[in-house]
Structure formats: C-alpha cells, structure tokens
Amino acid sequence: MRIFERLEDIAAAQGEHLGYSSWLDITQERIDAFADATEDHQWIHVDPHAAAAGPFGATIAHGYLTLALLPALLAQILEIRGAKMVMNYGTQKVRFLAPVPVDSRVRLGLELQSTEQTATGLRIQLEATLEIEGVDRPALVAEVLYLAVP
After folding, report:
1. Which of 119, 42, 33, 113 has the alpha carbon at shortest distance from 78?
2. Which site from 38, 39, 61, 86 is most exposed, i.e. has the minimal number of CB atoms within 10 Å?
3. What is the DSSP string of 37-67?
4. What is the separation of C-alpha 119 from the centre of its chain, rounded to a whole number of angstroms?
C-alpha cells in the first residue's frame, strides 16, 4: 500500500504506478446482487443457462459493477493520511474494454496522473486499470478524480 502522510507529497509522485490491489472473485452471487441493487436483470448477467448459449459462453459482470468495485480496490492501494477527508470527485473517462466472465478474478492497478490545488483541496487524477486474471486486455480503464480536503 502506498501511504501519503502529507498532501504535499502526492504531487511529487505524479506519473508513478502506485501498485495493485489483491485479486477479487467475480461470483454469480456478486453479479446477482448488483443486478438486484440496480434493477438490471439482463439475461447476459443473471441467466447462466441462456448466457451459456450467448456470445461469451457464460454470464458476465455488468460494466458498472466493475466500475463500482474501484473505490474498494483503490483503498487497498492508496491511503492519504494528510487530509481530513478524501472524496470521490468523479470520472473523466471510462472505457469498458473486455467482458468479465463469472468465476474470473480481477485486480486494480493504479497510476497517479496529476494533481491540482483548488480552493477546496487537492484534486487528484488517477488512471485505474481493472485487470482480469489471465487475460491480456483489461476489463476497464478509467480516469478517476478524488478531492483531498486538508
């Protein structure tokens, strides 16, 4: 885990790869729970029998499920102690590049792209890459923004 004790130290790390999260299992139970929470019950996600005959041969995780995993996985890689509060500020760009099949494992890689001092705090832009174990192409790449309030 990369720990920043002071906000000033973050700017000096621009361009650095900060590390990887642990691998996370993508189970049918996780996919079904996300489908229930978002009311997105498309067969490609929740019907293993129909999905077996579909384009991927099995159910796949929702793209937004993979995106929703980023904060929890990011917390395994990066800790900012030099702030009263760190909050999700948004996303610049998200690309879903490969489907995540049921029973696969994913992990997050994180690179610190840039920082910008604002009136409210330090805006931090990270490139988040969600990898699928054993697959060359990432599941998603996103530019995510956080705001560290001193």
Report:
1. 113
2. 39
3. HHT---HHHH-HHHHHTSTTSS-B--HHHHH
4. 27
Confidence label for 82 from pLDDT (cuts 50, 70 and 90): confident
Tokens coding 44: 């490609």
* Dist. CA 77–CA 19, nearest whole Å: 6
- Residue at token pair 């729970």: 33
Asked whether 96 and 117 are in contact (CB, 8 A), the reply is: no
Query: What distance lies between CA 31 and its chain's CA centroid?
Result: 16
- Residues ≥6 apart with Cβ < 8 Å to 136: none
Question: Phi and psi for 47 in degrees, rounded to 5?
Answer: -115, 90
Rounded Cα–Cα distance for residues 50 and 135 (Å): 24
pLDDT digits (tens, 9 = 90+) for 89-109: 999 999 999 999 999 999 999
Average pLDDT, the chain: 97
pLDDT tens figures, 102-139: 999 999 999 999 999 999 999 999 999 999 999 999 99
